[in-house]
Amino acid sequence: MSWSRRTFLLLLAAPLAGCGFHPLYGGSTVIGYDPDLAAIKVQSIADRQGQILAMALREKLNPRGIAVPQRYVLNVILTLNRADLGIQRDATSTRGEIQGNATYTLMLPLSDNVVFAGKSLSTSSFNILQDGYATKVAEDDARERAIHDIGDDMTLTLSLFMRAHRQAAN
Predict the structure, then answer these.
(1) Is 97 part of any domain?
(2) Which H, E and C letters describe the chain, residue by residue?
(3) Residue 87's domain is classified under what CATH number?
(4) 17, part of any domain
(5) Based on the structure, what is the number of domains in the chain?
(6) pLDDT digits (tens), the chain, 170 positions
(7) What is the pTM of this model?
């Protein structure tokens, strides 16, 4: 790249430094985690799928496992439903679908004050094969994908809420 092109690109990027722009999906701070998200305690969620979601949320909200005082409590209700699709004439199906639904509330500890409430949905599909084991593995994978999609959506929504909450406080 020529010197003039580099200078031109640098001049284009310079105004972004003072406008408060920072990427939503990138690291939020220099220390590598958001202290407001790390201060959320994820309550236990029922069933094995709930455990997977709770572990994913704990990892996403506090990736470094830093010990911070808990300022919020996250309660989640997770439901996963299976539906058969692609019904053939002989009443067998060739496609399955997992529909995940998580309803959650962010509360202040030791109180019933709801600070934020939300809902996350995800749909994941899988093939129903002749081999029962292969179908079970595909269904389990679809469940796990739906759970991780819900966790990603919840983390993004909570990040946006915390950002708006910080800006309102300033």
Answers:
(1) yes
(2) CCHHHHHHHHHHHHHHHHCCCCCCCCCCCCCCCCHHHHCEEECCCCHHHHHHHHHHHHHHHCCCCCCCCCCEEEEEEEEEEEEEEEECCCCCEEEEEEEEEEEEEEECCCCCCEEEEEEEEEEEEEECCCCHHHHHHHHHHHHHHHHHHHHHHHHHHHHHHHHHHHHHHC
(3) 3.30.160.150
(4) no
(5) 1
(6) 577 777 777 667 666 665 555 555 555 444 567 888 889 999 999 999 999 999 999 999 988 888 888 999 999 999 999 998 877 788 778 889 999 999 999 999 888 889 999 999 999 999 988 888 999 999 999 999 999 999 999 999 999 998 888 887 76
(7) 0.77
